[in-house]
Structure formats: C-alpha cells, structure tokens
Amino acid sequence: MDMSNRYNRKIAALSGAVGALALLYAGILIFGSEQARDPLFVWLEASRADQADRIELSGSEGGVTLVRKGGLWFVSRDSREYPAKQSRVQDLLSIVTAKGRAPLRGTEASSHERLGLAEGAASRLAIRSSAAPYPLLDLLIGNTDSTGQEVYLRKSGEAEVRSSEDRISGYVGSRPASWFNLRLFPEADYPNLNAEAVQRLTVEAPASGGGAPEVLTLSRHEGGWTLNSASPADTQQAESYIGAVLMAEGEDFLAEDPARPVQAEGRIRMELGNGQTLDLAVGGLLEPESKRRSAWIEGAPFKYILAEWALSRLFREGSYFGRP
Q1: CA angle (38 as vertex; 35, 44 as ends), nearest 5
Q2: Structural contact between residues 172 and 57, judged by C-beta atoms closer than 8 angstroms
Q3: CA-atom Rg of the chain in angstroms
Q4: Which of 178, 211, 255, 305 fits a disulfide with 174 by CB distance 3.0 to 4.6 angstroms?
Q5: CA 313/CA 323 separation, integer angstroms
Q6: Per-residue pLDDT of the chain (324 residues; tens, 9 = 90+)
Q7: CB atoms closer than 10 angstroms to residue 69
Q8: How far apart are the first and last CA of the chain?
C-alpha cells in the first residue's frame, strides 16, 4: 500500500510539472506571437534625421519653422533667424528616431477623420533636408485615445494608422516662443563664460523717478569680493548675483523698429580674467504700465524684452551685497 501511495504521489508531481511546463510554453507562444504582430517601430531612422536642416511644426498654437545652419538650430520668424533651444530640438528628434511600441490601429482612410488624422485637421511635423526632394518625415498627429495616454499618428499620404505614447503633442502644440533660446549670454556664443571668469562688475541701474542712477562696483579681492572698492561684500550674495546675470533670460526677442532706435539707460559691465569686457545694456521702458525694458549685449545681433522681475534681479541695491 505504501509503495502504491508513493507511486501515485510521484505521478501527481510529474503531472504537475508537465502541466506547468505546458503553461509556460503556451505563454511563450502567445507572447511571441504578440511580439511578432507588434514589433518595435521607428518613424525615422537616426541616420536620416542627422541630414535634417529644416523642421516645420503646426499645431493648436500656430506654426514654427526651425532651420539648421552651421550645426546649430534657429527659429525662423519675420524673415529673421533667432537662436533655438538646441536640447529641445534634439529631444523632439529623439522621439521620432527612438524604436518603440506603435501598434497598427487601422489601414482604412475612412478612420482618419474620426481619429483626428484628416489632412488639414491634424497637427503636423515635417522634417526636411535640402539634399532630399521629399520630406524625410511628414507625420500627422491626431487625437489621443480614450485613456489620454496614447496618440494616433500616420504618415502623410499613407492610410496606415498607428498609436504610441503621447510624447509628441507637447512639442507640436507648444507656443512658438517656447523654442527660443532667450539667454542673454547663450551657451553657444559664450561656452567658457562662468562666475569664476568674472573679476569685476560695474552696475549702473536705469534712472527712476528723475533721480541719479546708483552705480555699484563689485571686485574680487583676496578670495572674496569688495563693494565699491572699499566695503567687503558678502561672497555668497555676490556670486549668486553674478550667476543671475550670466543666466538672465528675456521673455521674447525684441522686434526692432529702425525708426525708433533704442538707447541704453542702464548697464552692467563685466571684466573677465582673460581681459575681455562684456556690456549688458538696458533700454527705456517699452510700456510704462508693464515696466518691461529692452536689453542686449553690446556687439551681439539680438535684442530682448526683459520682464520687471528679471530686471529686479539684475539691478540690486547696495544693501543686497552687505555682509550678514
């Protein structure tokens, strides 16, 4: 009897193991078939994206055209080309060049209108190369699905519809100004400019209320800073201020009017350790009610619009630099 029980237990254990293996094999077959039906997909090969020198976006906030010259991207607006955020452009390109899940959702043109993919209704991303007669990629972006997590996409001229995680709508539907690099000292033009390079600053604030402008001078001295070549300045405050000057951004580029040239009413002069001098100039009020002003770097090609809060960080009172 004992031998019979042991035999039955062995048979049961063996049957269970066989059943588990069968389930595992079935799972592999099912998963493999799903993978075969839904392989990783890429909209544009990275090697082709490297040839791009023009990107056109159109969405809910209007259209944006980006052009590449000398290895750098610019935003084309009003017949001028303004510096673009290089990392933002690269992030956009990485979305369409990355392999990922993009399951096929339909092959019939009759579904395009329902999915927001009809020509003229969909948002659009066109990536072009001057060396190619046709776009490298002409992608239409439609509605999101019921979960709001995925978006419907198709190539212009093709009926096939796919969906993927919605990482692209935020780029195509963004404001044109979001593409501007509005740093007054852009990284591409001043690659070695940092707080350690600055040896002396002279700050002349714009006059207000008819009074004479306050002039402050910060100078390096024995590992710290002095204010107006006399009083010791708080090192942390001085270096925080210099960082704010170097990282200052406008809220937009200034559309210059040749009939109304801007004049400097304030200035920050930075003297660097290599002997170079950089002048940040600030013009008059653009609109009295907003207290915005124009700003520019002397010798640079662009002028910017600075908001009141940005101006308040650039022109501090002497008490800001006092020792605690």
Answers
A1: 125
A2: yes
A3: 30
A4: 178
A5: 18
A6: 454 555 455 454 455 554 555 554 544 444 444 444 557 999 999 999 999 999 999 988 889 999 999 999 999 998 899 999 999 999 999 999 999 999 999 999 999 999 999 998 999 999 999 999 999 999 999 999 999 999 999 999 999 999 999 999 999 989 988 999 999 999 989 999 999 999 999 999 988 766 677 899 999 998 899 999 888 999 999 999 999 999 999 999 998 876 677 889 999 999 999 999 999 999 999 988 888 999 999 999 999 999 999 999 999 999 999 865
A7: 9
A8: 93
Domains of the chain, start order: 41-179 (no CATH), 195-321 (2.60.40)
Say if residue 148 is exposed, middle or buried (CB neighbours under 10 Å; 0-12, 13-18, 19+): exposed
Strands (E), 156-214: 161-165, 198-204
One-letter identity of residue 27:
G
Answer whether 0.90 is exceeded by the pTM: no
| Structure-token pair, residue 68 | 């590449």
Strand partners, 124: 58, 140
In the structure encoding, which two tokens stand for residue 14, read together?
A: 């063996």
The encoded tokens of residue 173 equal: 């539907």
